[in-house]
Design goal:
By secondary structure, the protein is α/β, with parallel strands linked by helices. The chain is built from six helices and five strands. The radius of gyration is 14 Å and the shape is globular.
Length: 145
């Protein structure tokens, strides 16, 4: 799977560790950088490329994961979930079809972050599941319906 990674300067080392981990799982990783202190810029770049299909999934990191997830979710077709536990990482994909995982480098330990990433990447959304109508409604809202 091709994964886009981006972060703010505070999460640079965290991102590098997660890229190495994702690569060890066999994924192709694209590093969108971490130099811009305005994290919304890298979040938007990652979100646009994920929404356009250039990458299958994205991973965004900042201090809490909140800012990058809010910024990414402003991009049509980008669905970012900020997670902090295994159940959230599972449900981000299974229940919500999130194509971007957000985490906080200052609130999540690196070993937990690796577990969250591995779990998220191992799952696929099923549009025929009971979550299908819920996700369809989110997409309809995005279209202005």
């Amino acid at each position: 799977m091709k994964i886009a990674f981006g972060c703010d300067p505070n999460a640079t080392d965290f991102k590098k560790d997660l890229i190495s981990f994702a690569e060890s799982l066999g994924h192709e990783c694209m590093d969108y950088g971490s130099d811009d202190p305005i994290y919304a810029n890298v979040a938007a770049r990652v979100a646009k490329d994920v929404a356009a299909g250039c990458c299958q999934r994205g991973v965004l990191l900042c201090g809490t994961g909140i800012g990058v997830s809010i910024a990414a979710n402003k991009v049509k077709g980008a669905y970012a979930a900020n997670v902090g536990n295994i159940y959230q990482a599972q449900r981000a994909q299974l229940s919500n079809n999130a194509n971007i995982l957000a985490m906080g480098s200052q609130v999540t330990g690196i070993e937990l972050a690796k577990c969250l990433l591995k779990e998220y990447l191992s799952l696929s959304y099923d549009p025929n599941s009971r979550s299908g109508p819920k996700v369809d409604r989110i997409v309809a809202i995005e279209r202005g319906e």
